[in-house]
Amino acid sequence: MNLIWLLLRASKLQVAIAILTGLVSGGTTARLIALINSAVSGNFTSNIVWYFAALAFVVLINSIICQVLLINLSQDAVYRLRLRLSQGVLSSPLRHLEQLGANQLMTTLTEDVATLSTTVYAIPFICVDIAIIAGCLLYLGSLSIGVFAFTIGFIMVALGTIQLLINRAQHFLTLARVDQDRLFKHFSTIVDGIKELKLHAARRQDFFSQELQKSAATSRDHNATALITFSIGSNWSNLLFFILIGLLLFGLPQLIAIAPSVLSGYILTFTYLMLPMQSILDKLQQLSRASVALQKIERMGLTLAAQKEDTGTRGHKDTGIFSTLELQQVTHAYPGEVEDSNFILGPLDLTFHPGQLVFIVGGNGSGKSTLAKLITGLYIPESGQIRLDGKVITDENREWYRQHFSVVFSDFYLFDRILGISNLDFDKQAQEYLQQLQLSHKVKIENGKLSTTALSQGQRKRLALLTAYLENRSIYLFDEWASDQDPVFRDIFYKEILLNLKQQGKTVLVISHDDHYFHLADRVIKLDYGKVEYDQRIIKS
Ligand SMILES: Nc1ncnc2c1ncn2[C@@H]1O[C@H](COP(=O)(O)OP(=O)(O)OP(=O)(O)O)[C@@H](O)[C@H]1O
């Protein structure tokens, strides 16, 4: 049913036209069968051939129109779903996405959407088959009410037994979908941990037999049980067809009088109906799989919608100059598995100004990166306030607030095209920065596209710095940027690049462990277990 809603969301009018043409096609098919039955019973009229040809033509045209409409609709529905899901992910709070996990997001965006797109393609054909069945049933009803009532009663009971089998199969498909998430995680482990797995035979063997093989076997068993149940259902429905024909031929005539033309009409129609019925049953397992995928997508889509952030920047165009950025009693907590193990950052009171070079230091796990995500507006404070020039940052203006920052995180992502910067001198400027960052011999930039990103980690970080440079925003934040740089470039970073940004009036926040450069800062903030141990101004001689 949800799949039909997916189509309806795309266009109600087109769905209505498709249903109408499908019904005409089904009704006309039934009329054709009636005509054949009447011809077989010896009732010929002079223009029967023309009538027959006209009916066949109407069936052809209507089923083509119906299927073309539904194919377009189904593909459009999948297109919209892909965009909606991607938008949903883009507009969800970072913390929520971190909690969902990369594996779950990727399986849904790839596997579930792929399952849906192949199934939605089958829907048009199922619709035409249903229309034919409906048309044929109408015809059977017009032949004899008594026989029709018996047939419908039989079909209801038959459908009940088939539904039981489908429910069982669906249960195993749902379990198989959970296995799919687990398998996807193992595949990510193979790709991301390939070096560690190759270097340690016992670890590799352990991972293979205890993790991957077990999950793959469970997935195989659940899928096999589901498919076998569908196969039993399909064969059972075939048998039910023959039982019905047998009852109509040999059983019912013993109880009530049935005219031979009515009987032949029923037998002819059911023989014809076996084809569309079989086709629908064959597609049932595909439909059930899609229904499980859609449930998963909708569930994720709903949670995404519920957590949706306001991503508009309307009414807040001034992303340039500011004079004060304040954090007042700001806190953030990561819920731990054990109540006492929760990490809590803050409450913190910090104020930053333009032209300040601030080092944020502290031991591993002291909360530096968490503070970076809070300052940049990626995490929403659990309590306290962030204010920019006295303006409190809320859900309405958080997107605008984030546009003040250029950041290179320690787990940065490097795009192979410089996105979102429209500057006429762009390539020339980028080329100059490439030279400054000593990368011009390795990378070229044409129309914003980087010639390569296949570089060393340190060089890739320099490219990320280049993007930050080009963004030309008022607050810069670098999370352990220099940790991968050689001593010469590290020196250039601290003594030239940072000071140059400061001279331009930027606020520069640097998370660092390089204590022999701390004297260059205007201020050093040290964190310890989520609290400020000291916030020290450096007096320059
Ligand atoms: N995604 C997360 N989910 C749960 N807890 C987290 C998450 N990220 C960090 N933490 C916890 O928060 C604490 C602070 O982490 P954070 O990354 O901010 O420290 P850090 O000072 O940047 O450390 P490092 O110098 O090692 O990069 C750690 O105890 C960590 O266990």
UniProtKB/TrEMBL annotation:
Protein keywords: ATP-binding, Membrane, Nucleotide-binding, Transmembrane, Transmembrane helix
Chief place of localization: membrane
All copies of domain ABC transmembrane type-1, residue ranges: 16-289
Classification via InterPro entries: AAA+_ATPase, ABC1_TM_dom, ABC1_TM_sf, ABC_transporter-like_ATP-bd, ABC_transporter-like_CS, Cyc_pep_transpt_SyrD/YojI, P-loop_NTPase, Type_1_exporter
Gene Ontology MF: a single term: ABC-type transporter activity
Stretches assigned to the ABC transporter domain: 325-541
GO biological process: one example: peptide transport
One Pfam family from the record: ABC_tran
Annotated GO CC locations: plasma membrane
Membrane-crossing segments per the record: 48-73, 120-141, 147-166, 224-249
UniProt subcellular location: Cell membrane
Coiled coil residues, start to end: none
Cited SUPFAM superfamilies: ABC transporter transmembrane region, P-loop containing nucleoside triphosphate hydrolases
Topological type in the membrane: Multi-pass membrane protein
NCBIfam families associated with the record: cyc_pep_trnsptr (TIGR01194)
PANTHER family: ATP-BINDING CASSETTE SUB-FAMILY B, ATP-BINDING CASSETTE SUB-FAMILY B MEMBER 6
Protein's recorded name: Cyclic peptide export ABC transporter
Natural source organism: Hassallia byssoidea VB512170
